[in-house]
């Protein structure tokens, strides 16, 4: 079977979509295409753009994918957009040319974990999409396959915007459960590299959950690097995850978005160790972990 070559990406202007598009552009053999809704104001210079209807009509998208002989579809829209992802998966099957779909699994927590789904209803959408794509691929009798890439917290993005429980500008850290819990996390560039490597290894990554990590760290290790780079001690607030979740989860379930972000941040630390997962895929994908010191230096520099 010829290698995957024509790769379509939807959500290319988003947090994870931008670095994925850059990685596809830099690849020596991949030919990237961006799926762009008709009403979108996003512009992609020097990029092949396929305009698709706002309602994500399955038949129209399938025809467009077929017209451009698309071999793989990467969905980088918000994972909560369940019905939209299902239509895109249906279009991939109907096209007859798409061989691999990568759904919007990227992120902090594991939607294949029952306790995670119980704590975070947000993850249930990702689980539902994965169940759907599994069924569609089974129906295709091998013509279509899927890969889900689970990355842990987006480290550089989260560190820079306060999501990871550090405030670089005020030099303040919120440390959970003593700060020595080790968790998997990845920079946006590392995630994009992982996606590219999945597409390079079509057979070995077929119909699999793939857990990757660019960094395997504790909060205290990150704090030490932050203090070194910024040249001084930080204010530290000690937190217990159980107590925090008792307060935050009810607010999250009532629609409080800040509370939801806090729950995700905490859960991605205390339940984010991918090295214990059967699908831990760094070796399979030939991924080399990043250097914590260098990454922290870059993030602090960007916040100056």
TrEMBL record:
Keywords, sorted A to Z: NADP, Oxidoreductase
Q: Give TM regions.
A: none
Establish whether keyword NADP is in the entry: yes
Q: What InterPro entries does its record include?
A: NAD(P)-bd_dom_sf, NmrA-like, NmrA/Isoflavone_reductase-like, PCBER-like
**Pfam families associated with the record:** NmrA
Q: Report domain NmrA-like positions.
A: 5-239
Q: Name one GO molecular function term.
A: oxidoreductase activity
Specify whether Nuclease is a keyword of the entry.
no
| Listed name of the protein | NAD(P)-binding protein
